[in-house]
């Protein structure tokens, strides 16, 4: 695949998009997992699916939308979903978790209706659901790069605020931190990453890339910064191995990337247990 990258533009688009997503998805995923918001990524992915299905339907019925990249309407839907989740969380102050199934259910319902109206599943929609190596265009790559820059700038200026909100939200609010707006902005950035990742990982599997590398990293990391580094390493490894496997085996890259992430997680868990067992055995012999 490495040699083919220099010959085929679609492989260049897929590979470089995957490398970027392998960084930004686990990077935000650390904050998502620490704040116990893992299911929000699933909810936003289903809302994104509604946007994609809507765009495909409009392309069939309105000629002006035929040339519109579905990723744009997917981004609009994902960002709108993140804002709605925050509004519902503030409405149900004592039952904030209700916002997630409400938005997820709405996304699934609207997606089902639009998919039916768009004459069911087709090859374009399947590539958005599970990813596709050949479907990533140069325009998609530019969108991924732009969103990656937004993520980097956001984390550069808001890292301390996010860190404080993640570990001591009450103190953050008491110290005058605008927690509501920081969290809303964070949710919008997460929505952007989910929308950007769908071409490679697929809408239904993108949340896995935001959580599985983090789950593996938390087994070996000794601090928050180490967790971030290990998450990115595991995320990049999953993307590279997954894309290579998808290319040579002609499989959906979303599936191969997620399965690779699961294998890495299992290896980390087994390796950690073996290390603890050897350490305990060494202590007992002493």
Structure description:
The chain is mostly helical. The chain has one domain (2-285): Orthogonal Bundle (ABC transporter involved in vitamin B12 uptake, BtuC), CATH 1.10.3470. The chain has helices spanning 2-5, 9-34, 38-61, 70-91, 99-117, 123-130, 138-167, 169-174, 179-197, 206-220, 224-249, 253-285. Helix 3 (38-61) runs antiparallel to helix 6. The longest helix is centred in the last third of the chain and has 33 residues, at 253-285. It is globular, with a radius of gyration of 20 Å. The model has no long low-confidence stretch (mean pLDDT 84). Keywords: Membrane, Transmembrane, Transmembrane helix, Transport. Pfam families: ABC-3. It is found in: Cell membrane; Membrane. Belongs to the ABC-3 integral membrane protein family. One of its GO terms (cellular component) is ATP-binding cassette (ABC) transporter complex.
CATH superfamily: ABC transporter involved in vitamin B12 uptake, BtuC
Give the total of beta strands. 0
Quaternary structure state of the chains depicted: single chain
Helical stretch tally? 12
Globally, the shape reads globular
Low-pLDDT segments: none
The description of the largest β-sheet is:
none
- How many discrete structural domains? 1
What is the CA-CA span between the terminal residues? 51 Å
Secondary-structure content class:
mainly alpha
User: What share of the residues does DSSP label as strand, in percent?
Assistant: under 5%
How large is the radius of gyration? 20 Å
């Amino acid at each position: 695949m490495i040699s083919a990258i220099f010959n085929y533009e679609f492989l260049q688009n897929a590979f470089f998009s995957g490398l970027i997503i392998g960084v930004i998805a686990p990077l935000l995923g650390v904050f998502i997992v620490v704040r116990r918001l893992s299911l929000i990524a699933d909810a936003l992915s289903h809302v994104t699916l509604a946007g994609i299905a809507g765009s495909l339907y409009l392309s069939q019925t309105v000629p002006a939308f035929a040339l519109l990249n579905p990723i744009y309407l997917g981004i609009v839907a994902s960002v709108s979903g993140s804002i709605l989740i925050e509004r519902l969380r503030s409405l149900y102050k004592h039952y904030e978790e209700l916002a997630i199934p409400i938005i997820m259910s709405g996304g699934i319902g609207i997606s089902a209706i639009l998919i039916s109206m768009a004459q069911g599943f087709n090859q374009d929609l399947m590539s958005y659901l599970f990813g596709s190596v050949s479907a990533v265009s140069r325009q998609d790559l530019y969108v991924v790069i732009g969103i990656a820059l937004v993520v980097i700038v956001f984390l550069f200026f808001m890292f301390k605020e996010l860190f404080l909100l993640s570990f001591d939200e009450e103190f953050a609010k008491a110290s005058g931190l605008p927690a509501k707006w920081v969290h809303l902005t964070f949710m919008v950035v997460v929505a952007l990453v989910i929308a950007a990742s769908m071409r490679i990982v697929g809408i239904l599997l993108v949340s896995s890339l935001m959580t599985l590398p983090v789950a593996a990293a938390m087994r070996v990391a000794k601090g928050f910064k180490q967790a971030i580094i290990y998450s990115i390493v595991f995320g990049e490894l999953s993307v590279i191995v997954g894309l290579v496997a998808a290319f040579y085996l002609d499989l959906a890259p979303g599936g191969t990337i997620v399965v690779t992430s699961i294998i890495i997680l299992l290896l980390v868990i087994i390796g950690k247990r073996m290390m603890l067992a050897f350490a305990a055995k060494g202590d007992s012999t002493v």
